[in-house]
Amino acid sequence: MSADESTPVHDDAVAELASIRQSIDNIDAAVIHMLAERFKYTQRVGYLKAAAGMPAADPGREQVQVARLRQLAAESHLDPAFAEKFLNFIVAEVIHHHERIAGGGA
């Protein structure tokens, strides 16, 4: 039997793989939508901070968020270090946006 020939096990694996990939695609879409929603709110925060003369970064809040999300990650069986790296990436982007807003560039 050649590698091209179909077998029931192979067909089942291909079907399951397609189903799993569809679920992953759906989750990726949801993550993008959630990030877009999150950035809408952080943009509002940036305008409020700029109007009040507050700094773009808030290290105390960031520390609390890191600890909270590391705990959530651990409870969800996700590597807390990965969750922290992901949050740090998002926070860096938010701070960049806040600095731009404070500098007059929306």
Automatic annotation (TrEMBL):
Its EC number is 5.4.99.5. The keyword Isomerase applies. SMART domains: CM_2 (SM00830). Keywords: Isomerase. Coiled coil: none annotated. InterPro entries: Chorismate_II_sf (IPR036263), Chorismate_mutase-related (IPR051331), CM_bact (IPR010951), CM_dom_sf (IPR036979), CM_II_prokaryot (IPR002701). Residues 11-102 form the Chorismate mutase domain. It is an enzyme of class 5 (isomerase). The keyword Isomerase applies. Pfam families: CM_2. GO terms for molecular function: chorismate mutase activity. This is Chorismate mutase. It comes from Curtobacterium citri.
